[in-house]
Design goal:
Blueprint lengths: L3 E4 L2 E3 L5 E7 L5 E8 L6 E6 L6 E3 L7 E6 L4 E6 L8 E9 L6 H5 L8 E2 L3 E5 L2
Parallel strand pairs: 2-11
Antiparallel strand pairs: 1-3, 3-8, 4-5, 4-9, 5-6, 7-8, 9-10, 9-11
Length: about 130
């Protein structure tokens, strides 16, 4: 399992931006996903990226506003979040799993993230005026 550490969460006004970072102890051949969970709600797949960054997936609620990217040299995956809305408020988690090169990034992000075996501790994002 990888050690994952998220950072970059905080309080932001509606319409603002945040960039989350997920630093990993190892990186190559691992797919990475960002998930979020709001109080009283199920965990939701926000965005996933294949190993090497060739394929990405975004949930419908964040498409066009969030961007996932990977810096292999820094062993870090980023989630740039723009035009934030109050409904984006949640604890955000990054997750990692060896990329089996058969599962689509859409499928990786589905089913509450059961594809992923390594999880970070989470970072709180609060969007409020």
């Amino acid at each position: 399992q990888l050690q994952l550490v998220e950072s970059g969460g905080g309080l932001v006004q509606p319409g603002g931006s945040l960039r989350l970072s997920c630093a990993a102890s190892g990186f190559h051949y691992f797919a990475i996903g960002w998930f979020r969970q709001a109080p009283g709600k199920e965990r939701e797949g926000v965005s996933c990226i294949s190993s090497g960054g060739a394929s990405t997936y975004y949930g419908d609620s964040v498409k066009g506003r969030f961007t996932i990217s990977m810096d292999n040299a820094k062993k870090t995956v980023y989630l740039q979040m723009n035009s934030l809305k109050p409904e984006d408020t949640a604890v955000y988690y990054c997750a990692a799993e060896a990329d089996d090169e058969m599962t689509s990034v859409h499928a990786m992000c589905a089913n509450n993230g059961v594809y992923f075996g390594s999880w970070g501790q989470g970072t709180q994002v609060t969007v409020s005026s």
